[in-house]
Amino acid sequence: MPIPITIADDSALSRKTIRRALPPQWDVSICEATNGKEAITAVENGLAEVLFLDLQMPEMDGYQVLTYLKQHHEKAVVIVISADIQTQAQALVSALGAFRFLKKPLDPLLLATTLKELGLL
Amino acid sequence: MSGQFLSEEQRDALQEVLNISMGQAADVLARLIQTQVQLSIPSVKQSSRQDFIGCLKEPVQQHLAQQSFLGELSGEMISLMTDNGNEAIAKLMHYDTPLPEQDRQELLLELTNILAGACLHGLISQLNFKIQLAAPVLFNPASLCSEQLNWQQALLMEVQFQIPETSFHARILICLKQDSLYPLMHHLDMLLQ
User: Could you tell me the pTM of the whole model?
Assistant: First the structure.
């Protein structure tokens, strides 16, 4: 059974970059979200056991998504992939329950290592 | 006049590349001043010489630094900052304030190097270009008239940095000349392939 994952990012280039960086052997079904609201809908519809989450997004940003998921005790494994790489941003998303913080431009090798560390691969 | 040179896909890609570059620039500054820097959403638009000069004029007096670049891409980079804002940064960097004129100029050039330099570096390294960057110089927008600009149309990219709870606000403009647009589009397409 493929694992349902969601890629939430308002940039088409960024969604494509993440899609391409996914390890080819990882059996997943991919949903895409272009803002925070769509990301939450995906989680609530069971389409995001793993959620790749951008921070700067319209409608609802990544911080608001993390806050919502925490308040509603959602179990998604959230991996933040962000252009804002300041240590303060990293600390905040970790406090909000994100499992990992990866920097853009995304390094595919680091993504694979991260998925292994989290027992997803 | 919204980035007509570029297709929707190219504009999205350029904006994402700018987002990443801006994030890297903010990270350098944040480490230096030990304070979080707030980022804007980058804007990308087509600009005539008059539009360009117009966007340098602001109600509050600004200090500007200019850096030219040439090579596979050519154009100008302009940093706009205010006295109040730079005093705020100076305090975070443990300068004695108010700043003497000499220090004020040095700080403006240093911040330009950090912010504008990292933005441009991020842009060209992600898009795989080679350029030469001149040292920044201070300039007065009042002395600029459209005849001095040796282009008709350009692509104007703008990012802004703010530090919450201070008056620091920097605008960084990257102005790409007409003849750089074809190479830019070509490299964006390669990224999108």
Answer: 0.93
